[in-house]
């Protein structure tokens, strides 16, 4: 299942940009505000108007042990063998490590992320984005043992930040690549068990 959602966004969802524009417009007319804008100015906006969220998710029931699936998820060099959407991953998938993801969706561009949560074989989180939280992506992988040797795999990626409405317009639809990731992982794990 793939979902896209928006939380508390009205209009075009650019309220954060309005805070900055509120300071820039007077400059056009020769007026200098008493201080430069601060990201904390966003705190003045009601929570439901300043935070837009976009997300994708995918899941699969995999006939394999969670440890076997975990080994696949943490093998950076192996991703391109089972996920055709990944060109390669540079680095080591380990706690606190920074890795670079090269995807087929955006060839020639690397997406640096940090492994911020690492709880074998249950949960792993990768975080990346722009400085000052202008745009942030958080991908979480979860493995839950079920009955009869089956493991539920769930992956969710959430995008947030003041620049999200602008960046989102240029992003490709990642829904199919999330489904591809889940089915590729399932095929790989069930083939190696």
Jot down its keywords:
single chain; 193 residues; alpha+beta; Alpha-D-Glucose-1,6-Bisphosphate, Chain A, domain 4; 7-stranded antiparallel β-sheet; 28% helix; 30% strand; disordered N terminus
Task: Show the helix and strand layout.
Elements: H1 15-28, H2 47-50, E1 54-62, H3 66-73, H4 79-82, E2 86-90, E3 98-103, E4 110-119, E5 123-129, E6 136-145, E7 151-160, H5 164-170, H6 175-192
Antiparallel strand pairs: 1-7, 2-3, 3-4, 4-5, 5-6, 6-7
Helix pairs in contact: 3-6
Quick overview:
With 193 residues, the chain is of the alpha+beta class. Helices cover 28% and strands 30% of the residues.
Task: Give a written overview of the molecule.
This protein has one domain: Alpha-D-Glucose-1,6-Bisphosphate, Chain A, domain 4 (2-Layer Sandwich), CATH 3.30.530.20. It has 6 helices and 7 strands, in the order ααβααββββββαα. Strand 3 and strand 4 form a beta hairpin. Helix 3 crosses helix 6. The longest helix is centred in the C-terminal third of the chain and has 18 residues. The N terminus is likely disordered.
Q: What is the strand content? A: 25-35%
Oligomer: single chain
The tally of structural domains comes to: 1
SS-based class:
alpha+beta
Task: Specify the CATH architecture.
Answer: 2-Layer Sandwich
The residue ranges in which pLDDT falls below 50 over 5 or more consecutive positions are 1-31
Count the strands?
Answer: 7
What shape does the CA trace take?
A: globular
What kind of sheet is the major sheet?
7 strands, antiparallel
Q: Tell me the helix content.
A: 25-40%
Supply Rg. Answer: 20 Å
Write out the CATH superfamily name: START domain
Q: What's the total helix number? A: 6
Question: What is the CATH topology?
Answer: Alpha-D-Glucose-1,6-Bisphosphate, Chain A, domain 4
Spatial ordering of strands, largest sheet: 1-7-6-5-4-3-2
Distance between the termini: 25 Å
What sequence of helices (H) and strands (E) makes up the elements? HHEHHEEEEEEHH
Give the averaged pLDDT, no decimals. 81
What is the CATH class designation?
A: Alpha Beta
């Amino acid at each position: 299942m793939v979902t896209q959602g928006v939380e508390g966004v009205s209009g075009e969802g650019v309220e954060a940009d309005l805070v900055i524009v509120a300071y820039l417009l007077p400059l056009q007319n020769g007026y200098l505000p008493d201080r430069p804008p601060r990201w904390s100015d966003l705190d003045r906006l009601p929570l439901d108007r300043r935070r837009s969220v976009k997300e994708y998710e995918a899941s699969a029931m995999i006939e394999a042990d969670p440890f076997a699936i975990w080994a696949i998820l943490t093998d950076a060099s192996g991703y391109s063998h089972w996920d055709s959407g990944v060109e390669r991953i540079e680095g080591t998938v380990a706690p606190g490590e920074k890795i670079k993801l090269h995807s087929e969706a955006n060839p020639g561009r690397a997406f640096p992320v940090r492994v911020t949560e690492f709880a074998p074989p249950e949960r792993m989180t990768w975080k990346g984005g722009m400085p000052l939280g202008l745009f942030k992506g958080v991908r979480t992988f979860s493995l839950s043992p079920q009955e009869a040797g089956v493991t539920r795999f769930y992956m969710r990626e959430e995008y947030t930040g003041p620049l999200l409405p602008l960046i989102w317009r240029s992003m490709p639809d990642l829904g199919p690549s999330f489904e591809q990731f889940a089915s590729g992982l399932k095929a790989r794990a069930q083939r190696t068990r």
